[in-house]
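Progress report, Aim 2. The chain analyzed during this reporting quarter is listed below.
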Amino acid sequence: MELKTARLTVLVDPAKKKAFETLCARQDVTPSQVVRRLIRDYLVHHGVSFVPSGLDQEDDSASKA
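Predicted structure tokens for the chain:
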């Protein structure tokens, strides 16, 4: 899980936003969780590698101990 976060502003049709939030609530997930999962899956699908923010710092501090 990422240790740092950054804000992403997305403009969507109000009706789609409401439907999305309703579906997320029914599935007991937050809209943010779903969007983060979609972004992760999209990156993987297109072969883009990444290290979640904060994990590289955690590994560095563990190796220094």
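Helices lie at 14-26, 31-45, 55-64. The chain has one domain: 14-64. These observations will guide the mutagenesis work planned for the next reporting period.
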